Amino acid sequence: MTLARMAAIRAGVPTLVFSLDLPGSQVIHRLLCAEGSIDSQRMLLGRLDERDWTRLTRLLSRVVEAQLTIDASPTMTVDAIATACRKLGEGAGLGLVIIDEVGMIQPARQLDNPARERGEVARSLKLLARELAVPVVALSRLSQPTRLDRRPMLADLPEGERQAAGLVILLYRPELDDPWTPRRGEADLIVAKHQVGPTDVMTAVFQGQYSRFAPMATRGL
């Protein structure tokens, strides 16, 4: 949602989000909290103060006017995703597609191996990105590693998704493994694969109360 918010609201890029994991109401809730710096729990419990209401009122028009489309259908096939993307591209335009998440997309054909099915889905999404000439960001939930070093590695991604992706960014929050870590509130964005550029590790701030990630310089906001 941070990517969608920055693209659609801040940069005016027509963005289509497929949320197979969360219902639309929760997606909007997170979007409003992140963009308005509104505490998620206070909003959920209806305990907003005057400053929160002022922020929310100012924010609503920006969100409504943003070129952001959210499809929260609980089940979706690659063909359905492609159809929705083409329809929006021919109409209002399309500059970014975000899918949460790959493992919940129904494959075009049933195979006897779940890993192969996910690989088929990943390859189909890559072909869709090339057809539309827009980035397709597909989230993939990884299994918890059993090794001592809990940071995710490229090899943790299923082979089919690993091969199809042109760019792989792995997200790691140290405090989930060590509550006493001095890096509480930090998140590593590990660029583990980049077909046209370097790999690297970038550190951001996770602001859980606002349901967002932010640059390190904004830790105090």
Describe this protein's structure.
This protein is an alpha/beta fold and 221 residues long. It has a single domain, classed as Rossmann fold (3-Layer(aba) Sandwich). It contains 7 helices and 10 strands. It has helices at 2-10, 24-36, 40-45, 50-65, 78-90, 114-132, 159-164; strands spanning 15-19, 68-71, 76-77, 96-100, 105-106, 136-138, 167-172, 186-194, 200-207, 212-215. The strands form 3 sheets. A 4-stranded parallel β-sheet has the order 2-1-4-6, with helices on both faces. A 4-stranded antiparallel β-sheet has the order 7-8-9-10. β9 and β10 (212-215) form a beta hairpin. α5 runs parallel beside α6 (114-132).
Q: What shape does the CA trace take? A: globular
Q: What's the alpha carbon Rg, rounded to whole Å?
A: 18 Å
- Average per-residue pLDDT, rounded, comes to 92
Neighbour order of strands in the largest sheet: 2-1-4-6
Give the biggest beta sheet. Answer: 4 strands, parallel
- Quaternary structure annotation: single chain
Question: How many E strands?
Answer: 10
| Tally of alpha and pi helices | 7
CATH topology: Rossmann fold
Tally the structural domains: 1
Low-pLDDT residue spans? none
